[in-house]
Amino acid sequence: MQEWQARVDRALVELLPSETTPPETLHKAMHYAVLNGGKRIRPLLVYATGHAVDSLESGLDAVACAVEMIHAYSLVHDDLPAMDDDDLRRGKPTCHRAFDEATAILAGDALQCQSFHLLAKYLPAEISAESRIEMLDILAIASGSRGMAGGQAIDLAAVGKTLTIAELENMHIHKTGALIRASVKLGAMCRPDIEPGRLMKLDHYAKCIGLAFQIQDDILDEIADTDTLGKPQGSDQANNKPTYPALVGLEEAKSMALELQQDALNSIKDFDEKADPLRALAKYIIEREY
After folding, report:
1. CATH 3.40.50.720 is the classification of domain 2-287
2. Rounded to an integer, what distance in angstroms lies between the CA atom of residue 166 and that of residue 149?
3. Of 65, 144, 201, 254, whose CA is between 20 and 30 Å from 185?
4. C-beta atoms surrounding 84 within 10 Å
């Protein structure tokens, strides 16, 4: 996994516009937003899924970078004063603090566009035009109003309200889970002849770990410190946002995350040892400390 993290970091540098290319400040902000650390969970899921199903190696870098750029753009915009108004991200000043609000907005916009450019231009010829269009569609839906952006809208509207478990789950399936599911699906689709049945099992795996990831985030926001998190501790509580620990209690939230982890593992139980990185990621997601 460390090799894959290093691999995607190298690919991101190659596939981002150079910082010396005009407009330099915008390109520097894009590099800052993407290359300032991070766990690279979504790229790791791309590589791990590709490894599990013998995808074309030549397609995985573009997909891994595309999903990470979408993720980075969402964080830049989420941190803005109009949304979460955060000053720290990954232990460093947020993009709008390091540059300014206008540059941060443009950097997010440009990263989103760059991600679709990567899927349109850098996938191998063995992946058909029809499959490329489907992959673009998957990423677009996962990123837009029926996915991540829609989830953020639900999140903003929920501030100060008490949600049901079903409503909270729906919010996070969109806000966090949609891009995680897209990462797994796109990694699998780098194998042109991927079997629909295997793709369905991988998608269920991704749905489960996507929700488990958010539950663990909610738990960490309550129990971890700012230095460990790399962002202000307790920011969700301070912003009066609905979270799993607030709704069901800390211990029940931990139990829910474990159940989702087991469900994810069960969905890929008939995959061979090449899926072990996916199994390890399912465990890491609820055992991580930041």
Report:
1. no
2. 19
3. 254
4. 21
